[in-house]
Amino acid sequence: MIGAGPVGMATAALLRLQGIAVRVIEKNDAPTPFSKAVGVHARTLESMHALGVTEQLLSQGHPMHSFRLVDSGQTIMRAKFTNISSAYSFVVGLPQSCTERTLLARLISLGGRVEWNTRLVSIAQLGDRNDATQAAQVHLQHADGSEELVSCNWLIGADGSRSAVREMAGIEFPGGDYGKSFILGDVKVEWAGPKYELQFFLSKHGYLLLVPMPNGLHRIIAQTDKVYEDFQGDEKPKATLAELQAIVDRQGPGNMRVHSPEWLTCAPFYHRRADTCLKGRTLLVGDAFHLFSPLGAQGLNTGFQDAFNLAWKLAYIEKGWAPVGLVDSYRREREAIAKLIATITSKTTDYITATAWHRRLMRRLMTRWYNPTPKVQEQLPRLLAGLMQAYDGAQASPKGVPQAGARVPHAWVPDVLGYKPLASQIHGTQFTLLLIVNRLDAQTMQQLQAFSSQHLPHMPYLRVKLVTREVEAIEQAIPAGIDVIEDRLSSVFEAFDVTERALVLVRPDGVTALSAHDWSLDAVSAYFNKAQFATLPAKTVAREELVCHDA
Question: Which of 181, 260, 184, 247 has the alpha carbon at shortest distance from 217?
């Protein structure tokens, strides 16, 4: 693993969670002290249950429950994240520095570490994933100047937008800039406006985005009159507090004073995507793979979903549970998502940054017209939160039995202290088979017993959770290896729109693998057989996994 940013450390921690050895190489000497990416969306918070850090991230962040567009002093759009179906119906303002420290601590707790002050010198061999004898090979240089040749089964480039891995692997990174430049600052503000809302202020001079963060800080991103070419010479523009204040006075809400800056910079925004994220045994994740406009806070959240998609697949390959071809699904699924998000963020950025009078007039009229529609009030918050992302043409729905490739709907399930989100039960190291049934009759118990005795002992990658509303009616012992979730609130039944029974097989990254409105346990076995997953002798199967608890 080259790169110890948040996506790199998340990927490494997920591999360690699976018991896979991983070396994390980082040229810097410590995690970033800067806030950088600050928006954490619901899909990421759901997925972070796999590492048991969701509650810790929440405790450090600042929730924003809605977003607003203000044009020339008038609100033209406002929508609420509270309309999305998730336990996390908000976006969290959280400095990247806090996220990195949390993930580094989790990586260390799982037996991993970061090799700081260590640099990738060259890639000697990309590796051949179809030949087990052809590993990837890299030359590393340590802080003392000594060099090392390292062979690895997989080389993961998580080293940011200027990725050395990507360049040395000969992977193109096409795209461009928006022709404009922006000033970014983390400052304290004196202002009487709302503190739990994302706000865009639009004017003939461009836009200004105000993002509340913890400890009274605000991230401000504002359009400037500089152009991309200003950043190509030896003397690149520097950001100052006075310049930021002048832009806030010109483009902001009025009566706002900025002070006590913790970070100020001026830069253009880019949109780029690697031609491929998989070459030989070399893979790309995060900004090394894709670079988006920061509007909508999609970059880091997309990188985290790269990590959750990739880590379990590499782990299963290394354990001998799945064929090496499984890694090709990472390329197919994540390249499609990166393409989709690049299109959305580029269109949004062009829309928001328009300054020509006719485009501003059209924007004002169209936005006001669309604002009350379900497309804005329901779909847009879900889109920003990552809940509409799905693979292989699946349609993501907030309710109902999910299609293969889609996210599992949100529901509440009992916990010793009350209730917890279903997301905490379906993200981890194994597939989760949710068997939803209203009543456990004799025939149902026979099906469970047969699956438990004939199939489950041979599938170390599968856990089974029986969801029912009638636990008290159970007369026979539940077969070994099957956990029971008592749906006291009928939350799961309502979320999945189930009357009698349903079956949902969920991948370790929380994505639906298989679903049906009835039970077909043979279909579960057929799914793993088709994917060429190993069926192991019962005596070799260890059904324990590393357990995560949210701090």
Answer: 260
pLDDT score recorded for residue 237 = 77
Contact 119, 141 (CB under 8 A): yes
- Is 495 in contact with 409 (CB distance < 8 Å)? yes
Question: What is the DSSP secondary-structure string of 116-183?
Answer: TT-EEEEEEE---TT-TT--EEEEEE-TTS-EEEEEES-EEE---TT-HHHHHTT----EEEEEEEEE
Is residue 330 within 8 A of residue 285, CB to CB? The reply is no
User: What is the 3 state secondary structure string of 230-285?
Assistant: HHCCCCCCCCCHHHHHHHHHHHCCCCCEEEEEEEEEEEEEEEEECCCCEECCEEEC
Token pair for 24: 């994390």
Residue 491 three-state SS:
helix
How high is the mean pLDDT of the chain?
Answer: 92
Per residue in 22-68, pLDDT (tens digit) is: 999 999 999 888 888 889 999 999 999 999 999 999 999 999 999 99
**Which residue type occupies 165?**
V
The DSSP letter of residue 517 is: S
Output Rg (C-alpha) for the chain, integer angstroms. 24
Cα dihedral angle (117, 122, 126, 131), rounded to 10 degrees?
A: -80
Query: Of 53, 132, 77, which Cα lies nearest the Cα of 317?
Result: 132
On whether the CB atoms of residues 341 and 294 are closer than 8 A, the answer is no
Yes or no: say if 412 and 495 are a contact pair by the CB < 8 Å rule: no
Contacts of 250 (CB under 8 A, 6+ apart): 203, 205
| DSSP H or E stretch at residue 524 | helix 521-530
| pLDDT given for residue 64 in this prediction | 95
Average pLDDT over residues 167-173: 97
- For tokens 């001079």, the residue is 205
User: Percent of the chain scored above 90 by pLDDT?
Assistant: 75
Query: Which residue is it, tokens 């048991």?
Result: 52
How high is the pLDDT of residue 243?
Answer: 93
Question: DSSP letter at 378?
Answer: I
